[in-house]
Amino acid sequence: MEMSVEQLVTIVSAVSANLAVVVAIVALISQRNQSALSLKANLLSSLNSEFFFHERIRQVRASASRFGLERMRRNVEPGTELAMSGFQMIDFFDIVAVYYKKGALDPEMVCVTFHFWLTHYWAAFSSDIEKFERDSGLRTYVDVRDLVVALDRVALKLKRVPKGRTISQKELQQFFSDEIGECE
């Protein structure tokens, strides 16, 4: 069975058209992925600017750190008192956690940007949050808990922390001192 030139041209045209459709679909998917990554980066940049440069949050960071240091100096058991600034710090990370949970933030970018601060504030104030939730019957910071676990996994994968890492009281004291110096 022999094919005519017209049949060959028709087949080549059909294959070319299908190939063009596939290339267009791949380009569209690539464009969508690039756009999504760009949106995630812009959102993270906005959160980064707020956390590191916005005067109000810097005051909250300094206040929470002064409170944390003072509480450690007085040897007050976590969960017995918490300054509003401690809740405000966790509230900031709750916003990050909600965006993260909804897929609006890239895991590695969030880890690199906030893991260090989140884990230190969480180590300092999680007992207070747990007591608040027990006393109130509310579960207000579930997303933050989930974010801590998720970012710990990412940090391990990126080899940014050793396996089984815990934050010592000495490390918390240094963290709070550094935060006060950075934010005042």
Topology (elements, then pairings):
Layout lengths: L4 H49 L1 H19 L10 H18 L5 H30 L5 H16 L11 H15 L1
Helix pairs in contact: 2-3, 2-6, 3-4, 3-5, 4-5
Task: Describe, in plain words, how this protein is organized in 3D.
By secondary structure, the protein is mainly alpha-helical. The protein is 80% helix and 0% strand. The longest helix is centred in the first third of the chain and has 49 residues. It is elongated. The mean pLDDT is 88.
Short description, anyone?
This protein is an all-alpha fold. The protein has six helices and no strands.
The global form is elongated
The proportion of strand residues reads: under 5%
Q: How many separate domains? A: 1
Total DSSP E strands: 0
Radius of gyration: 25 Å
Descriptive key words:
184 residues; mainly alpha; 80% helix
